[in-house]
Amino acid sequence: MASADLECKLKEVESLFKLEKPRLQKMIEQMQEEMRIGLQKADQQLLMIPTFVRHLPRGDEKGTYLAVDMGGSTFRVLRLELDGSRKIDLSSKSYVLTKEHRESDADTLFGFIADCLEEFFPEVKTASKPIPLGFTFSFPFNCTRINQGTLVRWTKGFSAKNCVGEDAVKLLQNACDKKGVRISVKAILNDTVGTMAARALEWPDCFVGLILGTGTNACYYERIENITKANFNDTGNMVVNIEWGAFGDGKSSVDGPSVLPWTKYDQGLALDPPENKQLYEKMISGRYQGEIVRQVLVELIEQGLLLGGKLSQELSEQWRFETKNMSMVEGDSSAELDVSKEVLTHLGYPNNTLAERQALLRVCHAVSKRAARLTAFGIVAILRQMGDRVKESCTIAVDGSVFQKHPTFQTYLNEAVDELRDGQFGKVNFALAENGSGQGAGLVAAAVCSSGSDTDGSV
Question: Whose C-alpha in 191, 277, 347, 447 is 20 to 30 A from the C-alpha of 244?
């Protein structure tokens, strides 16, 4: 049993992280309004980036397609064989981008990718015509066509020269042309759009893509006439990349300060680069949940309520308690919470008690459940924006370690979405698209070729 003082403090912590329906409804309204503003004006809190992807694969596409999925120190090359019956014969291989590659220059970096394409699929050198390729490029880029993407800045430890301000599609295409690698880049997209496309083949009502991993983002089908900032002068639908991690940054465009439910435990993370940016992401993504738990534990220890009141060297280190530890703790069903005991032992507390393990479990539960409910209000805001198009049902394609590996996150998320939708739209189905971003790029390339619309820059 926890001491009376510890029990009182744990209830206080749980209350801080608890989100009731009225507050979530207020956040839904604000996010939906920020989405509308982002569709009307550039450089708003939510960027609402048009992707020029107008149609996802229908299932009748045929042929051989390639994809490159580039977003970190490893990248994947994929080959998709489509037979027109929604079936995919998929093969892939991962390659490492060394520090030397990441810090080199455009010719070296993209030349290496071209070499890997040839190594993975030698037939690409002797093909009678260029093989269509989709390019998942998970770095900030601006596009004016589906097959054009200007790199805004490098992230994730990349600094290759002669790339920023250049079209990543041209860099890859030119590198392949120089080496006789016969491909034609038909589409560039980010991982969120790729995830959505990967599940659309199986689920025709897949209208939303969601990343819930180290970071978080979402995309969805929007009516083109609502994207007024772009002056498309057209109708139909287009996938919009929300960049929703920025929700709550700075002062709201709608009604004063953000309604995000910041706690004192969140404040320190606001200063983590990018400083005072990506505030929504810092409350729900895998990079940050574990650190929020650590800050709560540190306070409990410093107040003399937990683990003998002594802060270990391990737990004093920022980021030492990882979100994967939360998954381990919350998935522990043993009577003595043996996994939690092991986690605390590795953090410098080999003599931890059952009451202390139970306290750890309660803190992890409070943080992860809040993250799921925060994710849920964003999803409901998207579905409300889509209106009648999701009246019957909507499948949301999801990728990322938080969704995939946390033992109860999916349950929390489903419960919260059902609670918040209030019968305004149909059943919501979450479909895991593990490593789907590369497959989605290949499928979008197939949709481009099948529609014949790569000539006008959208599909």
Answer: 447
Residue 275's Cβ-count burial label (10 Å; 0-12, 13-18, 19+) is exposed
Asked whether the beta carbons of 61 and 86 are under 8 A apart, the reply is no
Contact 292, 319 (CB under 8 A): no
Q: What percent of the chain has pLDDT over 70?
A: 96
E strands within 71-215?
74-83, 88-96, 131-137, 141-145, 148-151, 183-189, 206-212
Q: Evaluate whether 169 touches 184 at the Cβ level (below 8 Å).
A: no
At residue 85 the predicted structure's pLDDT band, cuts being 50, 70 and 90, is confident
For the chain, counts of helices (H) and of strands (E): 16, 15
The H or E element containing residue 69 is strand 62-70
Active site residues: 76, 138, 191
Q: What is the pLDDT of residue 457?
A: 47
190 φψ region: left (φ > 0), alpha (ψ -120 to 50), beta (else): beta
pTM of the complete model:
0.91
Question: Is it the case that residue 229 has pLDDT exceeding 80?
Answer: yes
If you average pLDDT over residues 71-99, what whole number do you get?
93
SS3 at position 405:
helix
Helix, strand, coil distribution of the chain in percent, nearest 5: 45, 20, 35
Question: What is the rounded average pLDDT of the residues 93-100?
Answer: 95
Structure tokens given for 358: 């139970």
**Residue in 81, 64, 86 with CA at minimum distance from that of residue 184:** 64
Across 403-421, average pLDDT: 96
Q: What are the two backbone dihedrals, phi and then psi, of residue 390, each rounded to the nearest 5 degrees?
A: -115, 25
First to last CA, the chain: 61
The amino acid that residue 339 corresponds to is V
Positive or negative, the Cα torsion across 372, 376, 377, 381?
A: positive
